[in-house]
Write a structure and sequence with these properties.
By secondary structure, the protein is α+β, with helices and mostly antiparallel strands. It contains 25 helices and 22 strands. Helix 1 runs antiparallel to helix 2 and helix 17 crosses helix 18. It binds 2-(butylsulfanyl)adenosine.
Length: 676
């Protein structure tokens, strides 16, 4: 069919536009057009391609079109895909450079391309005449599997390279991975749909890339960072790896924005330590940094060993997953009586700390994991997130090892009251106020920093005071005498006096703090602040019915019911009175009738990095009280990013999008100005 020139031009423009938006959406998380507009472009392209018989493998309309394959065919890598030597400390990194200098007989500093070691799957992409013709896994380095059908579904990988001419062959190598956000969303959706829970982003990505059906792979939002070039024909490459990165980025290939060129191993080490510090804040998981000699001639001179190049080195970070044994499972009783299973583990160094116990959350989690006492398990601790048992390691001789099944106790381990089921998954101790565990937890909560902030009245001391029956409720705290405290073991008179002074000081509090300290179910710091600013006085909250409670922003019917139940309990009302009689008091909150009290209404803030002068929840509560929304990721809708030390990709993205950035000091000044 003779296709009019005008149509050919339109098809070409549409393909380029679609790939451009694909890149913005998938590589840079910065879409320029709404999804509906993108869909319209794609529909128009499909319509023209069908009408004029212009179907082409390299067209973005063909990404997910393929049928499932029957099995994987083998791919031989013409140039083997090597792996990396690794070091774990500074001294070994120094000797790496010493070796290089000796081999090269070099005196002056060597330039290195420093890159994050992305935790994903190594792949090879083959482009002939700029068109993606084959994608393969690394396999054993010599033979991998053909995964072209799945790689074609990855939006950020171009099917056609920009500006790459005819009669060329170029093989691009890199890491395919699933980023943290994609992993989180995937598990949230899967959990809602009753599907399986994915253990970690790496395994999920590996599973997706080895799907037979590309439609299944397309459901996993995979990404890729390209880190080297293999086979090349008909293209003259630049002289350094860093220039190759610039070149292939121009071709439309995704490269890691967190890479850097450093001179000498000391600067590289600084890069590695910086990267380690911002590891939690990166949008993707890494297991170290990779240092590569930047000059390609030098790479050639240095050559390779059997399995790894001499010109590169991986600097490994502490593993975030390790295996250990579950020695026992105990049941902890929380402030509101919830019974939580806790695994006692054979101590294991993971994610930079030694972990010897970890919460198992609830009995459903134990069932989901198929966990029994005695099992070998994988424990994961990523960043400062609490450690988690993610998987039971299947054991070939499972019958031979002694494993004990885990069941919920019939009576509370702290007070022997009956344990009752509450809802679908939770179990509770029915002991209430008579349960010493519940008492201890609620007193700890009351005295904690975000609540009444009683300095010196720590968890250990509270446990001792409850065990010795010196205090039984939070009201007793205000009756403690210096003599009572000084009579305790290892407590000097001075410390006792300091604690009593801190108790006295805590009486001057604020309504949000007091509400939070009461430990009403589901009422966290942010909610306490909402309630306080909405009702202004405690008496109004006590008197509020369900209808007026749900008027408060973020209060739903369940939360309203918890609040109402708490305040309709006469014991709680007497406790509040007792506390007020002891002198607990707070300044009156002036009601506001206009939105000037919410100057940040309609604005979205993102908090990233470490805040040193206030907790994140405190910062969040303050922002929410001023009308702002607090989001977890940066987009063009973000109004402002508050960045503390260690801020990583969120900060970089904010800079890229030109969003207002405040450090903690500026943020505090900003809040003060708004509340003055
Ligand atoms: S370079 C010849 N660069 O780490 C060098 N590898 O054992 C080949 N990896 O299989 C690898 N990020 O899967 C290189 N920026 C990076 C990397 C990286 C992750 C993985 C890759 C490789 C393994 C090394």
């Amino acid at each position: 069919m003779a296709v009019p020139e005008k149509i050919l031009l339109e098809v070409d423009t549409l393909r380029q536009q679609i790939e451009h938006h694909n890149r913005l959406y998938h590589s840079q998380d910065a879409p320029e057009i709404p999804d509906a507009d993108f869909d319209a472009l794609l529909r128009r392209l499909e319509e023209l391609e069908t009408r004029y018989e212009l179907l082409d493998e390299a067209s973005p309309s063909q990404r997910v079109g393929g049928e499932a394959i029957a099995g994987f065919s083998q791919v031989r890598h013409e140039i083997p895909m090597l792996s990396l030597n690794k070091v774990f400390d500074e001294a070994d990194l120094q000797s790496f450079e010493t070796r290089l200098k000796k081999r090269l007989e070099a005196e002056s500093s060597i330039q290195y391309s420093c890159e994050p070691k992305v935790d994903g799957i190594a792949v090879s992409l083959l482009y002939t005449d700029g068109v993606l013709v084959r994608a393969a896994t690394r396999g054993d380095g010599v033979t991998g599997e053909n995964i072209t059908h799945n790689v074609r579904t990855i939006g950020s990988i171009p099917l056609q390279l920009k500006t790459v001419k005819k009669n060329t062959v170029v093989e691009i190598r890199g890491e395919i991975f699933l980023d943290k956000d994609g992993f989180k969303k995937l598990n949230e959706t899967s959990e809602k749909e009753g599907g399986k829970i994915f253990v970690n982003p790496r395994n999920t990505a590996a599973g997706a890339i080895r799907q037979l059906d590309p439609k299944k792979a397309a459901k996993i939002p995979l990404k890729m960072y390209c880190y080297s070039v293999g086979l090349v024909e008909g293209i003259k490459l630049p002289k350094t790896l860093s220039e190759i990165f610039t070149l292939i980025e121009k071709w439309g290939l995704p490269v890691n924005p967190d890479r850097s060129v450093e001179s000498g191993v000391d600067a590289c080490l600084e890069y590695c330590l910086d990267l380690l510090a911002k590891r939690n804040d990166l949008s993707y998981e890494i297991d170290g940094a990779v240092l590569k000699v930047d000059d390609l001639d030098l790479q050639l001179q240095l050559g390779t060993n059997a399995r790894s190049p001499r010109w590169a080195m991986a600097y490994k970070f502490p593993a975030e997953e390790k295996s250990t044994t579950v020695l026992d499972v105990e049941f902890q009783v929380g402030r509101t009586g919830t019974i939580t299973p806790v695994a006692r583990l054979e101590p294991v160094f993971v994610g930079g700390v030694t972990v010897s116990n970890t919460t198992l959350h609830n009995m459903d989690e134990i069932e989901r994991l198929g966990l029994r006492i005695g099992d070998r398990v994988i424990v994961r601790r990523a960043g400062d997130v609490i450690p988690k048992v993610v998987k039971v390691i299947p054991h070939e001789d499972a019958k031979k090892i002694k494993r004990r099944s885990i069941s919920i106790p019939q009576v509370c381990p702290a007070c022997a009251s009956a344990v009752v089921k509450d809802g679908d998954v939770l179990y509770r101790c029915s002991g209430g106020i008579i349960c010493p565990a519940q008492r201890k937890e609620s007193i700890k909560h009351f005295a904690s920093r975000s609540a009444m902030d009683i300095e010196g009245l720590g968890n250990k001391l509270i446990e001792l005071l409850v065990d010795k029956e010196i205090i039984t409720s939070v009201a007793d705290i205000y009756r403690l005498s210096p003599e009572q405290l000084a009579s305790l073991e290892r407590m000097g008179e001075k410390s006792a006096a300091n604690i009593v002074a801190a108790i006295h000081k805590s009486k001057q509090t604020s309504l949000p703090r007091f509400l939070f300290a009461l430990g009403i179910r589901e009422v966290g710091e942010a909610m306490a602040l909402q309630l306080a600013t909405h009702f202004c006085i405690l008496e109004s909250i006590i008197a509020a019915d369900l209808d007026s409670l749900v008027q408060v922003s973020d209060v739903g019917p369940i939360m309203a019911e918890h609040i109402r139940v708490f305040f309709s309990n006469s014991d709680n009302i007497s406790l509040i009175k007792e506390l007020q009689d002891s002198g607990v008091t707070w300044p009156i909150i002036e009601p506001s009738h206009d939105d000037s009290a919410k100057p940040l209404l309609g604005e979205t803030y993102v908090l990233t990095g470490t805040l040193e002068q206030m907790s994140r929840s405190e910062a969040k509560a303050k922002l929410v009280a001023l009308g702002a929304k607090v989001a977890g990721s940066v987009s063009k809708n973000t109004s402002c990013v508050v960045a503390g030390p260690g801020a990583g990709s969120k900060l970089a993205k904010a800079e890229e999008l030109g969003i207002k950035i405040l450090d903690e000091g500026e943020f505090i000044v900003h809040l003060d100005a708004l509340t003055a």
